Amino acid sequence: MEILANCKEKRSWVEINISQLRANYRSFQKVVGDDVRIMTVVKADAYGHGDVQVARMMEEEGCSLFAVSNIDEAIGLRKAGVNGEILILGYSSPGYVKEIKEYDLTQTIVSEDYALVLSSTGIPIKCQFAIDTGMNRIGLDADDSIACERVIRTYCRKLIITGIFTHLCVADSDEEDDKSFTRQQLYKFNKLATRISDLKLPLVHCLNSAGGLTYLSEIKDFPLINRIVRLGIVLYGLKPSSNFRLLPDLQAALTWKSVISMVKTISSGESVGYGRYYVAEQERKIATVTTGYADGLNRGLSNKGFVLIRGQKAPIVGRICMDQTLVDVSDIPNVKMGDTVIILGASGGMEYNADDMAEDLDTIGYEITCNISKRVQRFYYNSNVNL
Ligand SMILES: *Cc1c(COP(=O)(O)O)cnc(C)c1O
User: Fold this and answer.
1) Per-residue pLDDT tens for 42-75?
2) At what angle do helices 51-60 and 71-79 cross, to 10 degrees?
3) Residue to probe by mutation, ligand 1, list 28, 32, 230, most atoms within 8 Å of CB
4) Rounded to whole angstroms, what are the CA distances from 9 to 133, 154, 198, 294?
5) Is 293 a residue of the active site?
6) Best of 167, 189, 364 for a ligand 1 pocket test (most atoms within 8 Å of beta carbon)
């Protein structure tokens, strides 16, 4: 882990507040209760926060269940010393069964055909069945619970089946028809869990962040479903969707910073950047920021978004370039070369986090943090958040 003092020379970097991540984890655990197990979802490099660092820290917090999207992420965690169960949520090419066994990983079974191929290798790997209750992405179709039961029983003899799980697709919505859709999903999942209850699978789970905050009380009626939440976005202090109300203690742990390389004044009528997309209507002071779309700053923010400098908003002017962005600092006194720029985070009394940027881009916070590119180095620090 590099120390923060070293990052002065970077042109674009991310600072992750480890204490805040811990606080988010603990707050969530406190709200849902001690009987709930958290499976930390660290896919896509922990939504851009650094999977190894996040997983290690969560192990220190007592977490023993992790989920990733693919085999490479899973092996990366194992090699870094993560000991807990690691569930690969998506398809792995069957040629990887040896690695799955060697690194003691758990593979999701996406279909009956896939189960057949995996078992034909003769290597008994740990697996969990995905159950499709309405997302129509992966899994055995829960509408045919008899077929699901037959498939699960068949492969329990050939593979090490440790659980089944389903995924909710509108758990973040408070519309009545979405709520009834989610309840249908839970009901279907429970029906299957009941059919195979004699197998006593240790991990029967269905809740993501939004589900964990909204539907835990409802699965109390379904004792065969384990009180497990696969926790992703909320752990990072972001919202599952814009209408969702986050727990008050949860806060974004990620700050994205950059610097100003130069400041200049342009006169009325002069344009800025590619395509002459911005033309000054009066004299303007323009600062060049050393972050661009290759760093993950979405080009859709051209002439639209802003960054924070000295606790004030500096509007992005012109088109965002690959490695640089131009901002208007006319209203911010004393801006100069080397000043810190906050792309995401707090500055002075202002805060602009990934959820705010997501709203400006009509997307979700997940996409914003995942898209901060690999060349933007991550640094980790502890703050004095109340734990
Ligand atoms: C990504 C993912 C999660 C975590 O979702 P969040 O909304 O980030 O909590 C849980 N389960 C599955 C299957 C996922 O793919």
Assistant:
1) 999 999 999 999 999 999 999 999 999 999 999 9
2) 60
3) 230
4) 50, 58, 60, 18
5) no
6) 167
Task: Indicate if 96 belongs to the active site.
Answer: no
pTM of the predicted model, to two decimals?
A: 0.95
Q: Does residue 82 contact residue 56 with C-beta atoms inside 8 Å?
A: yes
Each residue's pLDDT tens digit, 204-251: 999 999 999 999 999 999 999 999 999 999 999 999 998 888 888 899
Q: Report how far residue 289's alpha carbon sits from residue 371's, in angstroms, rounded to the nearest whole number.
A: 18
Cβ 205 under 6 angstroms from ligand 1: no
The tens digit of pLDDT for each residue in 98-128 reads: 999 999 999 999 999 999 999 999 999 999 9
Give SS3 for 301: helix
Residues 6+ apart with CB under 8 A from 193: 164, 204, 222, 224, 225
Q: Which residue of the set 43, 188, 239, 257 is catalytic?
A: 43
Q: Is 169 near ligand 1, meaning CB less than 6 Å away?
A: no
Rounded to whole angstroms, the maximal C-alpha distance in the chain is: 77
Is the shortest distance between the CB of 233 and ligand 1 below 6 Å? yes
